[in-house]
């Protein structure tokens, strides 16, 4: 009977370790992906503290929080401004809005 309890305890211990390792691997992959996305979009918005971009922070927050459903006038102006500065950018509106929030 005692050996059965030890086997159950050992099994639970292994399952917990495997689950934790899987979680850590998943969060590392997600974090790495987000870091790469932020880095690529921040390369687009070189220009420091553009007034147009800084005024768009509240609109950018609403845009990101609503998953792109709310598009304010200040955000639209900032997106146009950023794309005019770097016409070859491939960043999405969401990536640019996230970069505006990171400033």
TrEMBL record:
Residues 1-20 form the signal peptide. InterPro entries: CHP02448 (IPR012661). It comes from Halopseudomonas aestusnigri. Pfam families: DUF2388 (PF09498). The keyword Signal applies. This is Holliday junction resolvasome, helicase subunit. Keywords: Signal.
